[in-house]
Amino acid sequence: MTTLDRAQLAPLIDHTLLKPEATRADVDALAREAEQLGTYSICVSPSMLPVETTVKVATVCGFPSGQHAPAIKAAEAADSVAKGADEVDMVLNVGLARSGDFAAVEAEIRAVRDAAPTPVVLKVIIESAALEDEQIVGVCEAAERAGADFVKTSTGFHPAGGASEHAVQLMRATVGDRLGVKASGGIRTREAAEAMVAAGASRLGLSSSKAILDGGTGTGY
């Protein structure tokens, strides 16, 4: 198990608020808390952009189902970047992955990459809990070919579940040190967060960041 102190763990966190009932006041409070905690970023819904904060701003596209046309995902990403997003976490069309159509997976990721070019950081949410191991490998390879910067385990909203150490290990083994790996979904304790880092995660999506950094147990995403 990797043991990280607070100063080591906080900069790995995307402090996240993606609840559909979130208000502007909630997002502003999230930003202030992220600044106090020293997290890497906040991650919020695209409708909440722009956000004034000293940390990086991440958002989502095609969230949470991924069942959006590639052109819609691309347009959503471009709009978010125009409104100040530093990072975009796009949801994969999981059905394409489950059917083995990795060419189509690559094409939709590339469409979003083209709409949100570097230096915007592009993360691809693969819903690892809904995929077999060979499908996880296939989508990670497609994401790398399409120019993504990260692969990410989960939205946190899929009934199949969130991040697992096994999925993170497999994703890291597939992308090596060429891409980042973000673990998200169901990480609610300091121990779980550290386990994901030990498995190979270079970023963590957490909604209970303060509780986890304090060594307690969080709720939600």
TrEMBL record:
Location(s), subcellular: Cytoplasm
Listed GO MF terms: deoxyribose-phosphate aldolase activity
EC number: 4.1.2.4
Signal sequence, start to end: none
Main location class: cytoplasm
Keywords, sorted A to Z: Cytoplasm, Lyase, Schiff base
Active site: D89, K152, K182
Pathway in which this enzyme or protein is active: Carbohydrate degradation; 2-deoxy-D-ribose 1-phosphate degradation; D-glyceraldehyde 3-phosphate and acetaldehyde from 2-deoxy-alpha-D-ribose 1-phosphate: step 2/2
Reaction(s) catalysed (UniProt annotation): 2-deoxy-D-ribose 5-phosphate = D-glyceraldehyde 3-phosphate + acetaldehyde
SUPFAM superfamilies registered for this protein in UniProt: Aldolase
Presence of keyword Lyase: yes
Source superkingdom: Bacteria
SMART domains the UniProt entry points to: DeoC
Gene3D superfamilies reported for this sequence: Aldolase class I (3.20.20.70)
Enzyme class: lyase
Protein purpose: Catalyzes a reversible aldol reaction between acetaldehyde and D-glyceraldehyde 3-phosphate to generate 2-deoxy-D-ribose 5-phosphate.
Family of this protein: Belongs to the DeoC/FbaB aldolase family. DeoC type 1 subfamily.
Protein name: Deoxyribose-phosphate aldolase
